[in-house]
């Protein structure tokens, strides 16, 4: 019976191992499917829509072959279409038989500018300069400059981009609302050899168990076979009834040795038998291990269920809210690029380069700094714009332009954090930094919406806040000038306002110094007013808003005696900006303040809190 069971085990082992190997080889089938794009027209851009990329399940692999530089990027479909609004390009479509072909898309007529509706905490609309916009690009000046030949590389709209020579292979995992744009340099025709590959689910979860089970049965069959042979050898020969044996007598060893020599004992047969079994079992184990070494994780059944993520606090998205302007990864890249460009501009004192990434009050301050550093050898450089890490991103939820986002960046070296506002005027213009301020060490930020949801940007005259954004700067300027006597003093939190305390102390110190020498012949006065730059307001989760404003502080020195003259012997800064070292009428110096406030909702008993601030000299002039 041992031989019978051994044969059965070996046959079953052979079948199981063969079936397992067959599943991983001849029966497995292809691991991927590839679709080639047939391009008929030469255009500088090629677009593959996300709906087509997700036609087959699984991640996508894009393969592009060209004769020179090959560029590919992906972004939201609406953003890709907006960037190409003024250009002719090829759009990949799928025919009824499943093949991929292209159709030419011509520029759509430029839409008329529409005024966005007034924003509320539950709706979205752009604010500030250029608020008249549609969902596509409507900035006339930028649209006129957007001519064919525009290179898509480096656009702030792309979530990620790839650029190589001749051959580009990019692994993607895009949802249906994303699209891919392919180009050479925006001037030359886009590459024409393009294909998309999707994986095919061809796992063989029972291949591993079959091979392992077959290996175990093979080992059992070999053991049974060896035991059968051993049993036969022990019991071989006829079994006969024996004759009576003579009485056993002791053997004289001395005689035996002298007659026949000494016979040495050999190794017992049982020991030899065990050696042969080990010798036979070793190849069986080696074969099984060799077969298992080629089995990957998809050759085994997945018996352990995937972990269910724990529920997190949900944020209710207001009905009709649009998509966030940027993702967190996109914002991080933009902020770092802004930081690098501004650092280069600061080093070279290049206002034109700075203007590619700065705007508003910040650009005006930088331009003044470059002028002073060109004339005064030891004049300090402006405070650097931190680039990373980006701790907080709050994008505006808006599909059109201009669009903005708020970010908080930590500077580990300086042990400070900066809050900033960046705005993109149209699809072709990069994001520009317009407001920046240093956050205090004990600053309590309001609760903000997640970056993947975004928040509404509020209109300058929004009536839903304790103070409308366009009245905030003038109210705070009045508090700086009048202190507790201001009608707005009770609306602002004085305890957390380090900027206000610093302004009061600085004005007192400077006035005391001036009165020691010039009180009899001149006067020094201080005043503050709302800046010339539009405010920025974005909603928080408590129905309040973070509002960024600019304030202009002006120091005025003028003579009170007709014979007196104001001289700038020890003030090279004002002398450089004013272009004079003395004046009979006096001088004025203007400082630019950028301030970030948290403004509660209307009717709240909570005061307006200062979150961050920065200040720099803006201009000097002769009265």
Plain-language structure description:
With 623 residues, this protein is an alpha+beta fold. The protein has 3 domains: 1-29 and 202-231 and 272-294, no CATH class; 32-198, no CATH class; 328-622, no CATH class. Helices cover 29% and strands 25% of the residues. The protein has 13 helices and 19 strands. It has helices spanning 2-24, 50-53, 77-83, 140-145, 207-234, 253-260, 269-292, 328-348, 351-354, 360-375, 469-482, 498-518, 572-578, and strands at 32-38, 45-48, 60-76, 89-94, 100-105, 160-172, 178-183, 193-199, 390-395, 403-411, 416-424, 432-439, 522-530, 536-539, 545-559, 566-567, 582-583, 587-599, 609-622. Strands 9, 10, 11, 12, 13, 14, 15, 18 and 19 form a 9-stranded antiparallel sheet that branches. A hairpin with a 5-residue loop joins strand 4 (89-94) and strand 5 (100-105). Helix 1 packs antiparallel against helix 5 (207-234) and helix 5 runs antiparallel to helix 7 (269-292). The radius of gyration is 41 Å and the shape is elongated. The N and C termini lie far apart (119 Å). Residues 113-146 and 255-282 have low confidence and may be disordered.
């Amino acid at each position: 019976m041992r031989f019978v069971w051994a044969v059965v085990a070996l046959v079953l082992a052979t079948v199981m191992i063969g079936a397992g190997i067959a599943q991983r080889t001849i029966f497995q089938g292809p691991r991927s499917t590839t679709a080639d794009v047939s391009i008929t027209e030469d255009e500088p851009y090629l677009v593959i829509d996300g709906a087509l990329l997700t036609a087959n399940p699984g991640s996508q692999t894009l393969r592009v072959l060209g004769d020179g530089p090959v560029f590919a990027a992906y972004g939201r479909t609406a953003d890709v279409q907006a960037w190409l609004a003024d250009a002719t390009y090829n759009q990949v479509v799928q025919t009824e038989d499943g093949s991929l072909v292209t159709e030419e898309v011509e520029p759509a007529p430029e839409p008329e500018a529409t005024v966005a509706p007034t924003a509320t905490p539950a709706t979205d609309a752009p604010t500030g300069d250029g608020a008249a916009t549609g969902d596509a690009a409507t900035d006339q000046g930028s649209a006129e400059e957007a001519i064919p030949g525009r290179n898509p590389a480096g656009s702030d709209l792309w979530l990620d981009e790839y650029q190589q020579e001749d051959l580009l292979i990019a692994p993607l995992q895009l949802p249906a609302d994303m699209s891919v744009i392919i180009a050479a340099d925006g001037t030359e025709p886009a590459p024409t050899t393009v294909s998309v590959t999707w994986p095919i689910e061809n796992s063989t979860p029972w291949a591993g168990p079959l091979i392992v089970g077959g290996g175990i049965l093979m080992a059992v069959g070999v053991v049974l076979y060896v035991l059968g042979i051993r049993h036969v050898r022990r019991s071989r020969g006829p079994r006969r009834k024996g004759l009576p044996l003579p009485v056993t007598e002791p053997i004289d060893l001395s005689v035996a040795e002298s007659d026949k020599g000494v016979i040495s004992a050999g190794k017992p047969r049982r020991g030899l038998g065990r050696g042969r079994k080990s010798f036979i079992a070793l190849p069986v184990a080696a074969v099984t291990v060799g077969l298992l070494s080629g089995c990957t994780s998809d050759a085994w059944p997945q018996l352990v269920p995937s972990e269910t993520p724990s529920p997190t606090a949900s944020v209710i998205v207001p009905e009709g809210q649009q998509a966030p302007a940027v993702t967190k990864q996109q914002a991080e890249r933009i902020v770092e690029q802004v930081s690098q460009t501004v650092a280069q501009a600061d080093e070279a004192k290049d206002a034109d380069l700075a203007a590619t990434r700065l705007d508003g009050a910040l650009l005006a301050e930088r331009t003044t700094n470059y002028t002073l550093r060109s004339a005064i050898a030891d004049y300090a450089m402006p405070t650097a714009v931190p680039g990373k890490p980006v701790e907080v991103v709050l994008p505006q939820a808006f599909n059109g332009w201009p669009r903005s986002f708020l970010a908080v960046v930590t500077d580990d070296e300086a042990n400070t954090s900066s809050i900033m506002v960046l705005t993109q005027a149209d699809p072709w213009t990069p994001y520009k930094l317009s407001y920046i301020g240093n956050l205090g060490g004990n600053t309590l930020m309001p609760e903000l919406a997640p970056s993947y949801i975004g928040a509404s940007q509020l209109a300058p005259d929004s009536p839903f806040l304790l103070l409308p954004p366009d009245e905030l700067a003038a109210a705070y300027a009045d508090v700086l000038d009048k202190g507790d006597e201001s009608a707005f003093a009770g609306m602002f939190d004085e305890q957390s306002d380090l900027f206000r305390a610093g302004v009061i102390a600085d004005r007192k110190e400077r006035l005391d110094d001036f009165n020691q020498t010039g009180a009899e012949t001149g006067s020094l006065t201080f005043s503050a007013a709302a800046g010339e730059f539009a405010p920025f307001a974005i909603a928080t989760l408590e129905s309040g808003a973070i509002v960024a404003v600019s304030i202009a502080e002006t120091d005025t020195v003028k003579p009170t005696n007709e014979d007196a003259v104001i001289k700038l012997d020890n003030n090279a800064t004002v002398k450089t900006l004013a272009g004079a070292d003395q004046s009979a009428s006096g001088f004025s110096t203007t400082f630019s303040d950028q301030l970030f406030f948290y403004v509660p909702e209307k009717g709240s008993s909570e005061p307006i809190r200062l979150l961050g601030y920065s200040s720099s000299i803006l201009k000097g002039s002769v009265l």
